[in-house]
Amino acid sequence: MRRLTICILGLILLTSSCGQVGQPKKQPEKEMPAPLIDAKTFFKNPNKSSLRISPDGNYFSYKADYKGMMNIFVLKTTDTIGIRVTNDTLRSIGSYFWKSDRIVYPQDIGGDENFQMFSVKADGSDLKELTPFPGIHTNVIDALKEIPGKEKELIVGINKRIRECDDPYLLNIETGELKLLYENKENYDTWVTDNTGVIRLASKPDGLNISWSYRSTEKETLSSLVTISSNDQFTIGSFDKDNKNIYVLTNIGRDKVTLVEYDPSAKKDVKELYSNKDYDLGSIIFDRKKKTLVSVSWTGEKPERYFFNKEWEEIYKGLDQKFDGYTTNIYGYDDARTKAIVGIYNDRMPGRSYVYDFNTKEIKEATNPASWIIEKQMSHTKPIAYTARDGLVIHGYLTLPIGIEPNNLPVVVHPHGGPWSRDEWGYDPEVQFLANRGYAVLQMNFRGGTGYGKKFYEAGFKQWGKKMQDDITDGVEWLKNEGVADSKRIAIYGGSYGGNAVLFGITLTPDLYAAGVADVAASNMFTFIKNLAPEWGPYIKQFYEMVGDPNDPKDSIMLAEISPLFHVDKIKAPLFISCGANDPRVNRIQSDQMVSALKKRGVYVEYMVKDNEGHGFNNQNNRFDYYGAVENFLDKHVKNKR
Asked: How crowded is the C-beta side of 150, counted as CA atoms within 13 Å?
């Protein structure tokens, strides 16, 4: 929850004075400029990250480096040295979780996003490839945690019958045995289980709508519940304690996403549980063991939450008091609820893990995954807001190099990817890396992003390279008017949609930027959408509505206008372009053709392709190569430009 902290050294707050009457206010200490920190410090694999505790409470697990890749290690809670239980040397392991006495994790090869499921025992033995289906992806629908009798099972979705949609299976994590739960002839793509692990709801796209179906018991067939516009949200968090009503995050008939209790039998809202007038609610926590709704959370300027359960509220209140100035989260606990893993972070520290004792309330530091990051040498990330040219308020974040007067600085404008997402407050290694090099870093949540309501989201429809880009440009002009930016030393840098925004920016406003860095960016909107169509499948009509339909004459004109490949003649700024050869979202050809066109025009361009990567660089050595090259590029064309 948001708190007002008064009289903390080094912070200037707009509050009444602290201390005794008549005494002068204590001035914050002036921060010194940070030393130049080696780029690898920001991007090397962390040590003992993603700490988790086993269900029986006897083991801790974590991820750490092994031959340049992140692998999983396990140690007994009574020991100090862990053993490695996975051996991946081609690609780092991402997410993982405990299930009974085993660890379960998804893994893809080379970044093609065809994830397969694996499990391994706590001692590293009996490694099982649970879904050995090349070219097929598997995703977890329900881990079935804290459900008696389901200790060895998961519900997963696998698209091996047909590529366009998943069938739900019950998967045994020891044997790999699969049991089909539902033959998905209707092409549902979202499944929701109740608190006993029974599939009760499913949804599928229907043109520009989403159709939900429901059944009251496992023996019944799914029947129509509600059909909503794809512009609306109807996200099911969980069933209630009686497995009757559901907790839904929805903006139907509203601008902001609100939490409601919904009766699927009567097909209506029962009551509104919580809302925020400024922001969309993001997610809920339901305690499946105690069958109680715990909290709802959202992102304003910083993360916030509201509690429905007093016991959990007191736990978090104690943690917040203990870690004042940090955001706290509980990342899991043993089945007996004796110990929990607590993580903390802020804008200058990437995160540390602690072990929390539910009974004594004692807390003990367990891991500091990036101990080489010295918090006082990192920069502050400040929430900001400015007004776009049409009057829309745009929120974002500004990170300034510490100990340097914020005047006439080189700037990196850093639009987020998605674009249907948003930037959030917290530690960002890219941002801190750039700030350490002396750049002011501007991030903005341009229209079309999430979290600010339906009107804000819809304001971005068919505005790629148009009003969405104007929001970015207006942020740059705001920063110039504030006196922070040196108008001759401004770069634009981003990945995915952020990379698109780079290419839009240097073609639409060629005199604004000194250079651009575009990672996994689309250059030709027609071929980009054509290649994307199979992945989006039945959602492609929604994509057409939000971005543009290449089959529509009017939209085709617009898509040609915003395809940077067709406007290379306008580009003046040097470019750094990068991609992964296995990217399933933005095909490598998008980068190849842009680089070729730039070279033909005589525009300076540097190009980096990694054959063992997909949508973004996952492997440590590739990150080292990439950020080292980016640093040299920006130094040459922005920072040292006069």
From this structure: 15
- The pLDDT of residue 642 is 66
Q: Measure the N-to-C terminal CA separation of the chain; round to a whole number of Å.
A: 46
| Mean pLDDT within 503-523 | 97
**For residue 368, with 0-12 CB atoms within 10 Å meaning exposed, 13-18 middle and 19 or more buried, which class applies?**
middle
How far is Cα 466 from Cα 561, in angstroms, rounded to an integer? Answer: 10
Whether pLDDT at 20 is above 70: no
Residue 58 sits in the same domain as residue 103: yes
Cα torsion at 171, 176, 177, 178 (round to 10°)?
40
- What contacts 24+ positions apart, CB below 8 Å, involve 357-362? 358/315, 358/333, 361/318
- Sign of the torsion angle spanned by Cα atoms 152, 158, 161, 167: positive
Residue 52 to residue 341: CA distance in whole angstroms: 6
3-state helix, strand, coil in the chain (%, to 5): 20, 35, 45
Please tell me the predicted confidence (pLDDT) of residue 134. Answer: 87
Helix (H, G, I), strand (E, B) or coil at 130: coil
Tell me, yes or no, whether 161 and 285 share the same domain.
Answer: no
Mean pLDDT of all residues in 512-526: 97
Are 281 and 306 contacting, i.e. CB atoms less than 8 angstroms apart?
no
Amino acid present at 204: K
Question: Confidence class of residue 11 from pLDDT cuts 50, 70 and 90?
Answer: very low
| 8 Å CB contact between 288 and 147 | yes
Cα dihedral value 179, 185, 186, 188, nearest 10: 40
- The two counts, helices (H) then strands (E), for the chain are 11, 35
**What's the whole-number mean pLDDT along residues 407-416?**
98
CB 84, CB 71: distance < 8 Å: yes
Structural domain range at position 605? 378-639
Q: Both 228 and 123 in a single domain?
A: no
Question: Is there a domain that residue 441 lies in?
Answer: yes
State how far the Cα of 33 lies from the Cα of 40, in Å rounded to an integer: 20
User: What pLDDT score was predicted for residue 28?
Assistant: 56
**CA 240 – CA 237 distance, rounded (Å):** 10
Which residues sit opposite 307 in a β-bridge? 295
Greater model confidence, 206 or 304: 304
Angstrom distance (rounded) from CA 444 to CA 398: 9
- Dist CA 70 CA 46 (whole Å): 8
